[in-house]
Amino acid sequence: MVVLKNLFSSIHQDIYQLNLNLQKMVGAKHPILYAAAKHLFSQGGKKIRPSIILLIAKITTSNNVILPQHKRLAEITETIHTASLVHDDVIDNCDTRRGIETVHNIFNSKIAVLAGDFLFAQSSWYLANLNNLEVVKTISKVITDFAEGEIRQGLTNFDMTISIDDYIEKSFYKTATLIACSCKATAILSHCDKNTQNDFYVYGKHLGLAFQIIDDILDIISNTDQLGKPAGSDLKNGNLTAPLIFALEENPKLYQIVNQEFQNQTDINKTINIIKETKGIQKAKDLAEEHIQLAIHVIKNKFQCHNTQTLMLINDYIINRFN
């Protein structure tokens, strides 16, 4: 099993500085807004997205140099990701995130929405100050994609006609778009050609899809302590994910339970047990593995260096998070 601390040893100091800078980026004048925003970054997290950006920066620059613009992009990406989590928690009514109370639980939903909006605004301001129009265009699309993903998810809650293709498209808007666009933006800042920019976009897209699929598996098979949030949250909110979609094909009994919209906790536990009895989880893992292999295929032979090998190990970490 890959250990993240060892994996990111070459960029350890950069990640340490990133955490300090994130605290500075939330320097809002209003004490409540500042407290809400600061609480988000005090929660830690694995910082996988900024780490990928910093590694790609090393791969795509001469002498493996991470430029100041790359570091700022990494901070912007993590801020956008965090802002999206705040809004997600309000929409899904989650009480905990990474084992810590969510912003709307500590303050209220209004403050949480404003804190998320504030972080989006801060990231946009820092993005504009990169003075690179192509990067601005690329990253700005992420925020519209997030909204598109949430709307699509809201419109398909408890919709048992959803296909795997629909699920993948929704997962792109909700998760993969940020990683894909950030990878491409990193290559833009390194002055790479269009083909290289596109290669890293495709890499990030498939990595992001795999990440989301594994997240959805963990929501089914992990407990609350492991997840840092209640297990079965997706089911409770009517968000039908890959393990359930595959399980529905195998066991029609699930249709009746899902149709009743999990009126109590026993329905969720019953559904989880049925999914575990089917091949739904294995099929979902196989789907994630397909996307990991597509990501590897894009960069494996084109960018051969130590940092590329580290990216390969990140792929391994993502696919094996529940082992």
From TrEMBL:
InterPro entries: Isoprenoid_synthase_dom_sf, Polyprenyl_synt, Polyprenyl_synt_CS. The keyword Magnesium applies. GO terms for biological process: isoprenoid biosynthetic process; quinone biosynthetic process. Keywords: Isoprene biosynthesis, Magnesium, Metal-binding, Plastid, Transferase. Gene3D superfamilies: Farnesyl Diphosphate Synthase. One of its GO terms (molecular function) is prenyltransferase activity. Pfam families: polyprenyl_synt. Its cofactor is Mg(2+). Belongs to the FPP/GGPP synthase family. This is Prenyl transferase.
